[in-house]
Design brief:
The protein is of the alpha+beta class. About 25% of the residues lie in helices and about 45% in strands.
Length: about 230
């Protein structure tokens, strides 16, 4: 019996060691693929569904859908998220961000209100989250996050690698415990993100019909313009 238990323990340790080694190999592969894809990344566009789930103190869910545009040239990038529907109601608004100025805008069409925000000391944190979706290299992700390989999964017909990320910034960890991403490393885009914000709150972002290096409308990043209306 002792020999059997010893053998079972040895086999368990061997299998665990093998899985750990394979996960490390997979992570190295994914980060390398991201490095290569990021070099070729210029633009991206796609549809999104952003869902915020609040469990405590009362269950509540908000769902926003729309179109996203992203442009990157070296270290400079711009983002525009055109939200069209909020909780099944047409509530058009546009979020934009430019890292060259560290400025975000929110335009609410129904009341014709444009607000401007400076990222300030949170700029690095904000950009580390935004770049998870579009054009981030493996080196960029590894510099901001502790990365673990989880598994491979087919999502909407696309082979994705699932990674778990923990912020390296201790201040950031106070409001964001971890992020799980489904990444298409061959294009340096993520198709799904789950942000664990703690205290019973999480944000789920799902991207579909993502097109990389497609031509973007000239006014894609103008918050008051509506490229789809043309």
């Amino acid at each position: 019996m002792t020999r059997v238990l010893t053998w079972c323990l040895f086999l368990t340790l061997a299998l665990t060691s093998t899985r750990t080694a394979l996960a490390a190999d997979d992570l190295t592969r994914v980060l390398r693929e991201l490095d290569e894809a990021a070099l070729k990344f210029r633009t991206a566009t796609g549809n999104f569904e952003w869902r915020t789930d609040q469990i405590e103190p009362f269950p509540d869910t908000d769902i926003e859908t729309g179109t996203i545009y992203f442009s990157r040239a070296s270290s400079a990038f711009q983002m525009a998220a055109r939200i069209r529907v909020v909780n099944q109601k047409k509530v058009p608004k546009v979020l934009t961000y430019s890292n060259s100025s560290g400025t975000a805008t929110l335009y609410e069409k129904l009341i014709d209100s444009l607000r401007v925000f400076k990222a300030g000391e949170r700029q690095s944190q904000l950009e580390s989250v935004l770049l998870l979706g579009f054009g981030a290299s493996g080196q960029e992700i590894g510099s901001k996050w502790d990365v673990s390989y989880v598994r491979t999964e087919i999502l909407s017909g696309v082979r994705c690698d699932v990674l778990e990320l923990v912020p390296k910034d201790p201040e950031m960890r106070k409001s964001l415990a971890r992020v799980t991403i489904w990444v298409d490393a061959s294009r340096a885009v993520t198709l799904k993100q789950i942000f664990d914000q703690g205290q019973g709150s999480r944000r789920v972002c799902i991207y579909s019909n993502v097109k990389v290096n497609a031509h973007l409308p000239s006014d894609a990043f103008n918050p008051k313009a509506d490229p789809q209306a043309k």
